[in-house]
Every structure is written in C-alpha cells, then in structure tokens.
Amino acid sequence: MPSPNRTPLVYVVDDDTDVLGSLRFLLETDGFCVRTFRSGEALLNAMTMGGADCFVIDYKMPGMSGIDLASLLRRRDIDTPIILITGHPDSSIPAKAAVAGIRHVLVKPHVEDSLSSHTRDAINTEQPSAS
C-alpha cells in the first residue's frame, strides 16, 4: 500500500494501443500514476521489483497471456494486486485467474465503469508483504 503522501502507481499491460491509452487516461484522471506496457515481456524487461501498487493486465495478448504473466509475477514472489481485464467473457476465466493469484476480473467494454474503484479497492485491501 502506498504511503499517504505518494500517488499510487499502476502498471497497465495491454497489446491494443487504443485500449492502453484509454485505460491510462481513465486512471490518471482518477489520480493514479500510470506506466503502460504493450506486452508482458515489455513489463518484465522494464520492471523494478516492488515498483507498482497494482497491475492491470489484459487477459488475451499475443505471446504471453495475462494469466501467464500473473503466474510468472507470483512465481517471482511479487504479490502486488492484479486486476485482469478481458473482452472474452468465459466462465472459466475467474477460476484460472484465482489460480494465478488474481482476485479481480473485469469484462470489457464495461471496464471504465469500475476500473478506478477496483484499483483503489485492490490497493487498499490487498496489502503485499514486504519482499
């Protein structure tokens, strides 16, 4: 959880540049600091351990999927909250997400209605342990 004097930092990963821009705008408008990445690989290459307060990750991306990325983050002992977004509503996604350590799944195109509140909730209730 960020200190009260620091703006929460959210890492957003989505292969669609339009969606990435929209999510960035939405979160920045609601007071978050945002870094964006077009793939899981780009995030992993640029990430410093413990940098983000929350991850917002697209489910379906070329190469590494959002579930794969979340699983890899968890295997690296990164317990920062993750919100999975998907445009492919499938009843199996929440179960797959839970196995990967994801507690929040949002369905496009309705992400804009609740992303900021889910992000604040995730940051405030899922307190990562110190690594």
Describe the fold and architecture.
Keywords: Phosphoprotein. One of its GO terms (biological process) is phosphorelay signal transduction system. The chain has 131 residues and is α/β, with parallel strands linked by helices. It has helices spanning 17-29, 40-46, 66-75, 93-99, 111-125; strands at 9-13, 33-37, 54-58, 82-86, 104-107. The chain has one domain (9-125): Response regulator (Rossmann fold, 3-Layer(aba) Sandwich). The chain has a 5-stranded parallel sheet, with helices on both faces. Strand 1 (9-13), helix 1 (17-29) and strand 2 (33-37) form a beta-alpha-beta unit.
Largest sheet: 5 strands, parallel
SSE order, as H and E? EHEHEHEHEH
What's the name of the CATH homologous superfamily? Answer: Response regulator
Question: Whole-number average pLDDT?
Answer: 88
Keywords: Phosphoprotein
Domain Response regulatory: 9-123
Pfam family, one: Response_reg
Modified residues (4-aspartylphosphate): 58
Q: Main traits of this protein?
A:
about 40% helix, 5-stranded parallel sheet, about 130 residues, single chain, globular, alpha/beta, Rossmann fold, 5 strands
Strands, helices and their partners?
Elements: E1 9-13, H1 17-29, E2 33-37, H2 40-46, E3 54-58, H3 66-75, E4 82-86, H4 93-99, E5 104-107, H5 111-125
Parallel strand pairs: 1-2, 1-3, 3-4, 4-5
